[in-house]
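Sample 3 of the quickstart, ligand zinc ion:
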Amino acid sequence: MASFKPSIPSGEVHVIMGPMFAGKTTALLRRIKSEGANGRNVAMIKSSKDNRYAVDSVVTHDGAKFPCWALPDLSSFRQNFGGDAYDKLDVIGIDEAQFFEDLYDFCCTAADHDGKTVIVAGLDGDYLRRSFGSVLDVVPLADTVTKLTARCEMCGKRAFFTLRKTEETKTELIGGADVYMPVCRQHYVNGQVLIKAARSVVESHKSKSGTFSEAAPVI
Ligand SMILES: [Zn+2]
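Result:
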């Protein structure tokens, strides 16, 4: 007869995604706090790449705080947190999940094998509306998926996308309202046209003056 391990409660994966300023971190914090208030052991993880507000706490755009582990990857969480402490954990929140390359494997192990409830919050798309990191990869693993919306900064309608206001073209550019704004579809498209126009002015200025040294960015 095969011997059976003691049964581990079934885990769950929940994904909260959307553009910047959609309240993803707020929704995650609310969920984690409510799980904690119900007597479950909770932990929060965020990427150590994002140190906009604080290293050891998750902070929403409106200032709410919660202690967390800032890590470069998720595979190091168990070791950092401690094996015994990890075994006692019920719920793990992951903020800014787009920065974790090992998100899929972590969610699989934590939910399928370790019986954890994992709540993932992150950007579904980057400023070019392309899939950002591994957030979309964990959708097939998820019990629930929630796409939150923000308010378009131009017209106040529902915003689904994040527009980058600067000319920087690398995908990972950490910033807040100084760099990004939430926009509706119409203003995303208009905004891209405006940014391209502004860039071509800069490009022509650049070729005249020769004071800029970086290569011409491409959107
Ligand atoms: Zn709009």
